[in-house]
Structure formats: structure tokens, C-alpha cells
Amino acid sequence: MSTALGTPAPTLRGPAAERTARTRTWYAAVGALLLVESLLIFVPVVVLGRAVNWPAGLDAPAATTLPLVADNLAAVRLGYLFYLAYSLLFLPVIALTVTALTDPAGRSRTVTRMAVALAAVSALARAIGISRWLTTMPGLAEQWQGGDDALRRVLAVQFTVVNDFGGGIGELLGVSAFGAGAVLCATWAVRAYAPRWLTVFGGVAGLAVALPAAELAGADIGPLVVVGTTVVQFWFMATAAVIILRARRGNTQKLS
């Protein structure tokens, strides 16, 4: 099947025209959702960046983070709610991407189903990781504000355990393992239908997202953690552009 965006389709009338219009609208909506997903991440980057130095401050000790959480609790809740929305949208975004860029035969392939399954596990793991900032951390921050040195030592241990556990599930497993796997499987699933440059870009994005998983082996990759998230947002944008252009030009796969 050709990977070109194609030329405008011939003019249709009657029921065929209505079906074509609905199909184009559906594809345009999918592209719009991908654009929303690609831009939504910038809300927590800005809000949480100002409040708790996110994401660079995720590994900061309790003595640094808990006072910031207490002083900026509303911003922390708002930022992580947006991050939760972004993380949960990852599942429909991957599912709709492989649906929009393949045909019925492509959608039934094992790699396509794996992409959706990995995206579902990724979204769940991310939600579990994020929940610590919406539930446990505000309580620890409140106790920290009024606690003496003995209590703060206990709270510091609790903070470290919760943060390491939640971060391992959310960031390392949810994003770096399952999230990267979903992107790579989705890229492989659409490789026969999408432009070659988009599939190459998707492969690079998937590998970039997997970079933080190196921490499981004890590697310190420093600022490279942010690279994967940034690259995958640009891949979402590029994928959205391809889908929207196909919808406008009429070169779409027939929905089933």
C-alpha cells in the first residue's frame, strides 16, 4: 500500500458522500486528540516546574520537596491532575493511532494488539505512580510543616519509600518500559501504511522513551530523562499532522 499522502479523492454524492464526510471527520478528530496529547504535557511541565522543580526535582530529598509541596499544594494538585489526564489519554491515543493508520487486516495483527495492551498497562502504571502526589505526599507535607526533628526523620523515610516505589511503577515501568513498548509496537504496526519518515521517527521516539529504564541497571542518565518525553510529543504532533492531512485529502483507510 502506498505511503504517500495521496491526491484529492473524486467528488462523491449521496450516501457515499455522507460516509466519506463522516470518515474524514473521524480522522480529523483523531488527529486533534493527538495534538491535545502532545500539548497537554506542557501544563504539568510549567505548573509543577514552578511549584516543585518538576521533573528535575523528582529525586530531591524530603527536606527539599515536602516544604515545596506544602507551600504550593494547589499548584501541585493542579499539575498532577493534568499529568494524570495526559497519562490516561495515552491509551486511547495509541489505540486510535493504530486504528487510523492501518486497515482491518493491520488492526487484527498481534503487534497491533500488543501496542494497545502495553498502552493500557502503561496508563495504569502511570496513574498509580502519579497518585502518590495527589494522596500521600500532601499528608506528609502537612505533617512535615508542624513536626519536630524526630518526626521529620520518620517522615523522610516514609517519603523516600513512597517516592521510590511510586516512581519505579510510574516513571520506570509505566513510561520507560510499557510506554516505550507501546510506541515501538504501534510504530511497527503502522509501518506498511504510514510514511517511512514517520515510522523511523516513531522508532527513535520509542527508544528515547526507554532511556530512563537504564536506571534499573544502576546507570545515571541525568537530563536524558527529559529527552524521551520531549521526542515522543513531537512524534505525536507529526502523527497528528499525517492523519489530519489524509483526512483533508481523502486518502484514508476505510473504517470498519
UniProtKB/TrEMBL annotation:
Domain of life from the UniProt record: Bacteria
Membrane-spanning parts: 26-48, 80-102, 114-134, 172-190, 197-218, 224-245
InterPro entries named among the record's database cross-references: DUF4386
Keywords linked to the UniProt accession: Membrane, Transmembrane, Transmembrane helix
Identification of the protein by name: DUF4386 family protein
